[in-house]
Amino acid sequence: MFLGNGYTDSLTCFYCGVTIIKCNGDFDPWEVHAEMSKTCNYLFLKKGKSFCDRANDVESDEIKSNQLKLFKLIAAKKNTLTLKSKMSIQSTKKHFKEIKITKILSDKIEEHLFQKLAPNLLPDNMLCKICYKEVIEVAIVPCGHAIACIDCALSFNYCSMCRMSCSRLIRIHLCVNKENDENLKLKPCTSKISSGDELNPKLCKVCLKEEMLTVFLPCRHVYTCVKCAEETSECLVCREDVYSLIKIYL
């Protein structure tokens, strides 16, 4: 969120305080922000690290290397990495030697991840529990609670659900709107649900039985329960390979 004073062509980031001067018609405040303030957490959560890296001309090989570090770390921990005895990051059945992070993959993930959902089309239990205006957009590390939008989550020192210290935030994308549901190539469902029944929007989009509880890495889409996630090797939304899972709590 940028704030203007109404008198000059300048914008100020509400979070880090950097001020940007508008230069021309092709002016992109996000790109200029990434160049001037590389460590702004609000920028990272809104636009993604790969966007910031490209704005600062970071070599693509270095970007790929950074994205592979997490997966290799998980593999070294016998396929399950635990953060502060709370959040578990589990590898999938994909072989780690097959991992290839390409620019096309990064761009596709970013395109899907940062699509804006319309809050007025979402049920209350999918909205930020602080402001009830925006969709839930982040999960808290290490407790895994996903309860807030970006703006509200950045004010947290402690999780408002469990009071555990908030060490960092993970940007996630809840697949709950009608467009994303139509894009999902759902597996055959054996649950006895009539077409007239109102479905809980938190239900797994694959089995329609359990609640959504997992984040896929690297794409960070959320639409499955733990059991279905463990059987998934390719994200059904963006069609990219899934190498790790994080359990969250909505």
Structural class comes to alpha+beta
Sheet-strand content, in percent, reads 15-25%
CATH fold field value of the largest domain: Herpes Virus-1
Query: In the CATH hierarchy, what is the architecture of the largest domain at level 2?
Result: 2-Layer Sandwich
Largest sheet: 4 strands, antiparallel
Unreliable stretches covering 5 or more consecutive residues:
60-65, 179-197
Domain RING-type: 128-163, 204-239
Pfam family, one: zf-C3HC4_3
Family: Belongs to the IAP family.
Organism: Aphis gossypii
Walkthrough of the structure:
The chain has helices spanning 29-36, 41-47, 49-55, 60-76, 103-113, 150-153, 178-183, 226-230, and strands at residues 2-4, 10-13, 19-21, 80-83, 87-91, 138-141, 168-171, 173-174, 214-217, 221-222, 244-247. It has 250 residues and is α+β, with helices and mostly antiparallel strands. It folds into two domains: 2-58, Inhibitor Of Apoptosis Protein (2mihbC-IAP-1), Chain A; 63-247, Zinc/RING finger domain, C3HC4 (zinc finger) (Herpes Virus-1, 2-Layer Sandwich). The strands form four sheets. It has a four-stranded antiparallel sheet with strand order 4-5-11-9. Helix 1 crosses helix 3 (49-55) and helix 2 packs across helix 3. The longest helix has 17 residues, at 60-76. It is globular. The two termini are 25 Å apart. The model is unreliable at 60-65 and 179-197 (pLDDT under 50).
